[in-house]
Design goal:
The chain has 15 helices and no strands. The chain is mainly alpha-helical.
């Protein structure tokens, strides 16, 4: 096996290391999210209070993507990726204190650290692919991006499952300690193995260059903001709390169900090129069409949940599966388009700006998920989601078509 790995082209080996690094991080990130939601719900926190625990996670994600893209272009993506892994180990370690010391400000600070870590790691992984694929090989670029993104989300789903199981078996602190130790081993290997010049710009970009000057990147970033707000406004806080409080599901059941959903979602992302690139790499027209389909699916689910035509448990399970499949295609298309649109030199600048918008969407969605669910319930979260997706659909009309490139 080792002999086969050594014989692979250098670009493939670097891609595998980047992907493995990203996988390990994502597994712990998904598990940590589930651990915090379920553990603090058990401690009596309201849905809005739980959402506030993630406030700094999302706020610092916005800042990190802007600054991280600039750092990646100046220092190299290997360094920003490894800094992200190291910060996640620190964030996990902060949660090993006795329960009495896990105050809201302390947990928010740990989540802020984790937010910085996650977005440094993700921005580095997505940017690195652009540097490893030959220029002009758009079909290959789409497949590699789809594979990385899809596998990441499958691992995130496995992380949800892992978090629910570890909380039930090892307890909150035991689960955190296990994840921190495993991630430490990955971090050491990554430091030794990743190339030092990966993604480094030929000229040192100025800090003022963190904002994209590309119209296509700016339009796609706006569409991404509303796309991910639409997902998180009902998925992040409202859904797991609804399953636990209204449907009476056990923690392990909530974790297993959400894990299965995200794993299936990731699998669809990986296979998205087979559905959307039969006549070559997709363009803005494909993104617009699929945004419209997702808007329709979410609107139907919102109406069904509001009217009670179908039992909530059945409606959610079926609706989530359809929503997940269509959302996965939308996400995969966006992930490819941003890597395609990004400039060749200092690629992380454009990608960092784009994921800043992604993080802003998550921030908005997370806050609304806790607040709207607490005030008006899950149906209201779904209605807001549908309205946000309609906005994504409208914005997507301005994305470049193949003939415009």
């Amino acid at each position: 096996m080792l002999t086969k790995l050594r014989s692979l082209p250098d670009s493939i080996k670097q891609y595998l290391i980047v992907t493995g690094n990203y996988w390990a991080f994502t597994l712990t990130d998904g598990a940590l999210r589930m651990l915090v939601v379920l553990h603090f719900y058990d401690l009596g926190y309201t849905p809005l209070a739980i959402a506030m625990l993630f406030l700094f996670y999302e706020i610092f994600g916005v800042i990190t993507n802007l600054v991280g893209g600039w750092l990646g272009a100046r220092l190299g993506l290997n360094r920003t990726m490894n800094i992200g892994l190291g910060l996640q180990i620190v964030a996990l370690s902060m949660l090993l204190l006795p329960t009495a010391m896990l105050t809201v400000p302390w947990v928010m600070a740990a989540q802020a650290m984790s937010g910085i870590a996650k977005d440094l790691n993700k921005m580095s992984a997505k940017s690195a692919i652009k540097t490893l694929v030959p220029k002009g090989a758009e079909d290959k670029l789409y497949r590699w991006v789809a594979m990385l993104t899809g596998s990441k989300n499958a691992l995130k789903g496995a992380g949800f499952f892992l978090g629910g199981v570890l909380l039930s078996t090892a307890g909150f602190k035991g689960a955190i300690a296990i994840m921190a130790a495993a991630l430490l081993l990955v971090w050491i290997y990554s430091i030794v193995s990743l190339k030092a010049d990966l993604g480094k710009a030929k000229s040192k970009p100025k800090f003022t260059q963190i904002f994209s000057k590309s119209d296509s990147v700016n339009i796609l970033s706006a569409a991404r903001l509303f796309l991910f707000s639409a997902r998180d406004v009902w998925f992040v806080i409202a859904l797991p709390v609804f399953l636990a409080s209204q449907l009476g599901w056990e923690h392990s059941s909530v974790g297993t169900f959400l894990a299965a959903w995200v794993i299936a979602y990731g699998m669809v992302q990986s296979f998205a090129p087979a559905l959307t690139a039969r006549k070559g790499a997709p363009d803005g027209k494909a993104a617009t069409i699929w945004a419209g389909v997702l808007t329709l699916v979410t609107s139907i689910l919102a109406v069904v949940m509001f009217t009670g035509w179908i039992a909530p448990q059945v409606a959610l399970i079926v609706g989530l599966m359809v929503f997940g499949a269509v959302f996965a295609i939308n996400s995969s298309l966006h992930s490819y388009l941003i890597v395609s649109y990004a400039g060749e030199d200092g690629v992380s600048l454009d990608i960092g700006f784009y994921y800043m918008a992604n993080a802003m969407g998550r921030l908005l969605g997370t806050i609304l998920s806790g607040w709207v669910y607490q005030e008006a319930g899950l149906s209201a979260c779904l209605m807001i989601s549908a309205a946000m997706l309609l906005t994504t659909f409208i914005i997507s009309f301005k994305l470049p078509r193949a003939s415009m490139r």
